[in-house]
């Protein structure tokens, strides 16, 4: 019976072997699906990480831009805080300069008044210059439409065309920003 059992065992072995191959195949395909699933998850995680990294860089750049803009706004606020106040003071200096233009300088009795008004104007301009307000007096300079407002154009053979021939009202700027353009007369070539 041992002999008969051996062939039966052999048959059993051969029968079991294909079952093991199938189990191995099932086990391999199970591992392959897990590996495939993990690779997919890894790729998704990498893509999500790249998105998050890109978003973080954009947020950082935006915060830097906001910080820079806020800093510039604060700087401008400090620089131009006196703009309205300075513009309101300009008629005062205009009136003082008009007084000097119309006063009779030949009259000895008014010599002290002339000197006092001149010193007041100089002191006033020096004081506002400390705060960034500068006078624009373009007499004899080329016409600049960014700083000057042409009130009249007159033909002139004495000066080059587009030259400021007279100043009706001086202009002013605050830290490089125009407060008021100078009102001027401009020359043109004679016909």
TrEMBL record:
It is found in: Cytoplasm. Gene3D superfamilies: 3.90.20.20, Head domain of nucleotide exchange factor GrpE. InterPro entries: GrpE, GrpE_CC, GrpE_head. CDD domains: GrpE. Residues 1-30 are annotated as: Disordered. Residues 1-23 have a biased composition (Polar residues). Pfam families: GrpE. Participates actively in the response to hyperosmotic and heat shock by preventing the aggregation of stress-denatured proteins, in association with DnaK and GrpE. It is the nucleotide exchange factor for DnaK and may function as a thermosensor. Unfolded proteins bind initially to DnaJ; upon interaction with the DnaJ-bound protein, DnaK hydrolyzes its bound ATP, resulting in the formation of a stable complex. GrpE releases ADP from DnaK; ATP binding to DnaK triggers the release of the substrate protein, thus completing the reaction cycle. Homodimer. PANTHER family: GRPE PROTEIN, GRPE PROTEIN HOMOLOG, MITOCHONDRIAL. Belongs to the GrpE family. This is Protein GrpE. It comes from Rheinheimera muenzenbergensis. The lineage of its organism: Bacteria, Pseudomonadati, Pseudomonadota, Gammaproteobacteria, Chromatiales.
């Amino acid at each position: 019976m041992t002999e008969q059992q051996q062939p039966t065992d052999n048959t059993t072995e051969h029968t079991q072997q294909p079952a093991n191959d199938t189990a191995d195949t099932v086990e391999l395909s199970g591992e392959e699906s897990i590996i495939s699933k993990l690779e997919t998850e890894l790729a998704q995680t990498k893509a999500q990480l790249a998105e998050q990294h890109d978003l973080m860089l954009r947020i950082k750049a935006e915060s830097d831009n906001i910080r820079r803009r806020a800093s510039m706004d604060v700087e401008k606020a400090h620089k131009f805080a006196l703009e309205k106040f300075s513009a309101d003071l300009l008629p005062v200096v205009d009136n003082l300069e008009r007084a000097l233009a119309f006063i009779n300088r030949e009259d000895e009795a008014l010599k002290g008044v002339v000197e006092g008004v001149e010193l007041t104007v100089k002191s006033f301009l020096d004081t506002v210059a400390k705060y960034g307000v500068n006078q624009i007096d373009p007499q004899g300079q080329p016409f600049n439409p960014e700083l000057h407002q042409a009130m009249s154009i007159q033909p002139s053979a004495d000066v080059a065309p587009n030259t400021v021939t007279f100043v009706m009202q001086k202009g002013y700027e605050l830290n490089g920003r125009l407060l008021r353009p100078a009102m001027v007369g401009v020359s043109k070539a004679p016909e």
